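Field: COMPLEX_INPUT
Field: COMPONENT_COUNT = two
Field: RESIDUE_TOTAL = 382
Field: MODE = joint
Values follow.
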Amino acid sequence: MAEVKIYTTPTCPYCKMAKKFFQDNKVAYQELNVAEDRKSLDEMIKHSKQMSVPVIDIDGEIIIGFNMPQIKQKLGLA
Amino acid sequence: MYELIIAGAGPAGITAAVYAARKKLKTLLIGKDLGGQPNWTTGIENYLGYQYIEGPELVDKFWNQVKQFPIDIKTGQSVTKVFRLENGFQVAADDGQNYQGLAVIIATGKQPRRLNVPGEERLRGRGVTYCAICDGPVFQGQKVAVIGGGNSALTAAEDMIRIAQHIYLVSITPLTGDPILIDKVKAAPNITIFTEHQVAEIEGEALVEAVKIAPRGGGDAKRLEVGGVFVEIGLVPNSELVQGLVKLNEQKEIIVDCACETGMPGLFAAGDVTNVPEKQIIVAAGEGAKAALQAHRYLQRRAQ
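Field: COMPLEX_OUTPUT
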């Protein structure tokens, strides 16, 4: 099982789409709300050099935005 | 070979797909953002049937309605080019796939307008953002610049009053948004407003560090130290995929007649990508319905 982390803000539509995609595909994920959690925000910026959410971390590999083809490939979904 | 390919999965494209499915057309719906612009809309009170609904919730209902039909749906991909074939059309998607259809509906909507200044593309996602509602909270306690003078820019600035340390609002024109929003923004203690100023450059190594602005009529440039640049200067139609194939107006919207016809037989367009006035969810949905019914008629005629 891949370890999936998603950095989000509560108002971001792409974050909602990405979470829905994980739920639909029965992929377990950990959500880190960077609006509330300063430590996760710093971690996100440090690892991804990104200030736009969502940032998705699958087994340590960073995916910028809700890039469905890239996520599918990484998770081995058809 | 599909009978109908619908490019774009916003309200126009999804509605077209529902109508096409009910006409039993062999249909492909292909689009990057399932739901399109309503995903970015908070309260909707003017889509009939719902007194109040959040944009993403409405999208979810659209999705549930369309997915019950036996059509092919590809999300997460967008059509980059439409080619004319002898016997229909070929569409190329950004993942390298090609699809062929007898008729095509372009329902690709609009996307945020870019500033087209040095540094913008390189620092996109690294402090430059086109989605204030998404990324606002990321800039807690920082200085930010909001670019634009209309309602989206003013709303972004207003949202940032509570979040950012300081906001520079930079507009090339006088502020044009609703007076009530302008008053709220002007009253905030942590906003500096520059009207008649344009952005010259966005600076930064790994992340945004500053934005350079200059008076519109010429004069000395100022360098504002900011961690974020929110670009809210309107929308442009995603019509590049048919450039050269059909007529566009000055705003690059696809020119259609009242039957969603582009002038090229078999190629239809619907929703915000077209010159149809009023960019509204209910209008886009209605246009999508019309386009699908016209496409069905076109396919019937050509089968005879």
